[in-house]
């Protein structure tokens, strides 16, 4: 994996064969043009339509207007709180019809869109992230081996990803999905193997969408005041890894809970697969 490609267009079958199956990140320049709304999703839009909608961060409640104010003023020296996010289906449900088809004709099937899958559980989420200069996410791979789809609605954000074979260079804590390494200021004395890592970076611009396959370590650094829409995907290609995570994460609590979660995962997967075979659109 030498670089992250930016594509003007590609067929669904080409995406499956060239990127999804081999697990290679890719950027779509205009996949979000498939959405029903041609609305410009900038701060003015969110102030007008959702200004008083609220969410919480570390126990403190923020309105949309307050979040936009504080992130707009964010600087490298004095960064805004991050990540402040909204659960779109629960907190901004009016936004969902505007971004349908959310799969943009690429991110399907998505078993998380099935009626059998509980929202907010087991990696199933649709988020709106708002940030500004100085904001940086932890280096991680997504829990439950979900595929991540991030569309930049406003502003620019830098994405940094690592090839799958470099996990040992990132010192995951207790074999978890979080790395302690700060890619902006790596401590090579404490983490010497990180010198061998070959991170790839790309700037995501408004209207562009990045596909990050399951198991890929990545992080983001805000290049400007920005707003992103992020959702996760599960289907037959990453189901086995998702099911294994359901067991592994629960085993830390108890073997009984782990077995129960594994059985639940198998049942949910079977139901989704049957729905897919029956022609259900997900």
UniProtKB/TrEMBL annotation:
One of its GO terms (cellular component) is cytoplasm. It holds the Pfam family Cupin_8. One of its GO terms (biological process) is positive regulation of translational termination. One of its GO terms (molecular function) is 2-oxoglutarate-dependent dioxygenase activity. InterPro entries: Cupin_8 (IPR041667), JmjC_dom (IPR003347), JMJD6_ArgDemeth/LysHydrox (IPR050910). Residues 97-250 form the JmjC domain. This is JmjC domain-containing protein. The lineage of its organism: Bacteria, Pseudomonadati, Bacteroidota, Cytophagia, Cytophagales.
């Amino acid at each position: 994996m030498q670089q992250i490609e930016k594509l003007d267009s590609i067929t669904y079958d080409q995406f499956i064969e060239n990127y999804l199956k081999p697990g290679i990140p890719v950027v779509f320049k205009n996949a979000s043009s498939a959405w029903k709304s041609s609305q410009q999703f900038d701060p003015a839009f969110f102030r007008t339509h959702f200004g008083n909608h609220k969410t919480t961060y570390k126990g403190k409640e923020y309105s949309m207007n307050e979040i936009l104010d504080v992130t707009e003023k964010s600087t490298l020296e004095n960064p805004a709180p991050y990540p402040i996010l909204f659960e779109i289906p629960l907190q901004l449900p009016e936004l969902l019809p505007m971004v349908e088809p959310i799969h943009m004709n690429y991110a399907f099937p998505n078993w998380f869109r099935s009626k059998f899958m509980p929202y907010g559980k087991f990696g199933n989420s649709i988020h709106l992230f708002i940030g500004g200069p100085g904001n940086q996410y932890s280096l991680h791979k997504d829990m439950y081996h979900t595929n991540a789809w991030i569309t930049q609605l406003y502003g620019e954000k830098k994405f940094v990803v690592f090839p799958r074979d470099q996990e040992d260079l990132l010192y995951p804590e207790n074999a978890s999905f979080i790395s302690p390494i700060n890619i902006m200021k790596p401590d090579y004395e404490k983490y010497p193997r990180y010198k061998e890592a070959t991170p790839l970076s790309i700037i995501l611009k408004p209207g562009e969408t990045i596909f990050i396959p399951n198991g890929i370590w990545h992080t983001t650094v805000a290049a400007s005041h920005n707003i992103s829409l992020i959702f996760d995907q599960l289907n037959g290609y990453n189901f086995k890894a998702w099911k294994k995570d359901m067991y592994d994460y629960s085993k830390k609590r108890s073997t009984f809970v782990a077995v129960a979660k594994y059985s639940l995962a198998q049942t949910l997967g079977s139901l989704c697969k049957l729905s897919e075979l029956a022609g259900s659109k997900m």
